[in-house]
Amino acid sequence: MNREYFNQFSTPNSLASINDLSPEAQKAPESGIMGIKDYAAGKEGVIPLWVGEGALSTPQFICEAANKALLEGETFYTHQRGMPQLREAIAAYHERLYGRPFSSDRFFVTGSGMHAIQIAVRLCVGFDDEVVLPTPAWPNLAAAVTVAGAKPVEVPQHFTPEGWKLDLDELFAACTDRTRALFINSPANPTGWVAELDELQAILDFARKRGLWIIADEIYTRFYYGEGRKTAPSFYEIANDEDRIFFVNSMSKNWAMTGWRVGWIAAPARLGQKIENLIQYSTSGVAPFMQRAAATALNDGELFIAEQIERARVGRDKLLRAFAGNNAVKYAPPMGSFYFFFGIEGEQDAARTAQRLVDEANVGLAPGFAFGQSGSAFMRLCFATNPDKLDDAISRLTTWLSR
Ligand SMILES: Cc1ncc(COP(=O)(O)O)c(C=O)c1O
Fold first, then answer.
1. Which atom of ligand 1 is nearest to the CA of 51?
2. Which residues have C-beta within 8 Å of that of residue 341, sequence separation ≥ 6?
3. Which of 33, 84, 225, 326 has the smallest number of CB atoms closer than 10 Å to its CB?
4. Does the CB atom of residue 189 touch ligand 1 within 6 A?
5. With a 6 A CB cut-off, is 217 part of the ligand 1 pocket?
6. pLDDT value of position 12
């Protein structure tokens, strides 16, 4: 068939346009984090600290488990909820963290933490419903709500040099008849805010009273810098197994597996069939070789996690030392996660600042507007990176700031 043949059909209306897409797809925002990465593409020598991952690749013993499974022919469809061996490994991991028994029936394997969030939102939020979330927040949380045809309602947290604060009265006041869920990410990306146990208790009490769901994103719980406890305060410490909570989690950060795309949901076991159905209709399950690797990571990865946490702690200390007393920057010491979220004196347009930092300082940071209105004058730096790179980035930034 020649071009003439096709041309006879091609009126302007025959071309697919964005207006032809569903309203939900049209409203899906571009990620502000990816925007700066694209801007810097091809620029030599930029130290990239914009995404949330460290510099270490996945440890060999984890990769070997995947290799072995592949070579042994584990290349078929598998359990939609996750292989029993992996679900048991996740349960055992929780038992070690929280010192009480967990049934593997509560855990559902997903194709990443992001997929866990997608499914959790789909499970409890419908068209035109509202989900209330404290911000600044990782943009994908609100975007997952938008893509589901629902409305994210931001509750801006308050910056103080001691830490970001969540006003619980403001959080509760933001809930309307349309609200179906609260999205609580603690330790938080990007602010490093960590909810105290009594704040989690107040949120849980409110949610119980109002029949709301909580989507609890505690993926950074191991990266906690407070005194007196090893992990950040968690809903696991106060909730019972039947509460309306979807915990979303991921292999990405603890085990340096960002490129693998494996995560999980923890939820009341009796909802299992519905959760399985949504997995069936989205990914139809996670590849078995990846599940074998994930189980190995969970069972044998504690030493590696300790190394990752130590790296993040050292990176955090370096930043706090480097910026102490520097009036050109404002920040609250992060109490968890692995991001340094800071404002720069005289710089209000974070998008422009991020570009200038790429061009003039050769450092790549994520602009704060990506994380909601209340973060718009801030920049996010991931400090879980290679220590030498971080030293370089700090020295470039301090030079740029004193220009
Ligand atoms: C708060 C938060 N939740 C969930 C995720 C999802 O992680 P992944 O999709 O890599 O498992 C991220 C990733 O950066 C995150 O920061």
1. 14
2. 136, 190, 191, 192, 331, 332, 334, 368, 375, 378, 379, 380, 381
3. 84
4. yes
5. yes
6. 58
d(CA 96, CA 340): 29
Which of 53, 138, 262 has the most ligand 1 atoms within 8 A of CB, as the residue to mutate? 138
Ligand 1 neighbour 143 (Cβ under 6 A): no
80 lines ligand 1 (CB under 6 A): no
What is the reported pLDDT for 14? 74
Paired sense of beta strands 47-48 and 363-364, if any: parallel
Q: Which pLDDT score is estimated for 309?
A: 96
Share the mean pLDDT of the chain.
94
Tokens 């005289």 locate to 346
Best mutation site among 114, 218, 258 for ligand 1, i.e. most ligand atoms within 8 A of its Cβ? 114
Q: Is domain 27-58+303-401 classified as CATH 3.90.1150.10?
A: yes
| Whether residue 135 has its Cβ less than 6 Å from ligand 1 | no
Read off the pLDDT of residues 246-283 as tens digits, 9 standing for 90 and up: 999 999 999 999 999 999 999 999 999 999 999 999 99
Span 187-199, pLDDT tens digits: 999 999 999 999 9
Q: Write out pLDDT tens, residues 110-140.
A: 999 999 999 999 999 999 999 999 999 999 9
Q: Which of 26, 35, 23 is nearest to 370 (CA)?
A: 35
Q: How far is the CA of 331 from the centre of ligand 1 (A)?
A: 23
Q: Please, which pLDDT band fits residue 1 given cuts at 50, 70 and 90?
A: very low
In the reported structure, the alpha carbon of residue 261 is separated from the centroid of ligand 1 by a whole-number distance in angstroms of: 10
Q: What average pLDDT does range 186-212 have in this prediction? A: 98
Do residues 250 and 185 touch, judged by C-beta distance below 8 A?
Answer: no
> What Å distances lie between residue 352 and 60, 137, 259, 356, 364, CA to CA?
40, 20, 29, 6, 12
Is the CB of 138 inside a 6 Å radius of any atom of ligand 1? yes
Distance from the alpha carbon of residue 200 to the mean position of ligand 1, in angstroms = 20
Q: 3-class DSSP state for residue 315?
A: helix
User: Which helix (H) or strand (E) element contains residue 145?
Assistant: helix 139-147
Does 250 contact ligand 1 (Cβ within 6 A)? yes
Q: What is the domain partition of the chain in residue ranges?
A: 27-58+303-401, 60-300
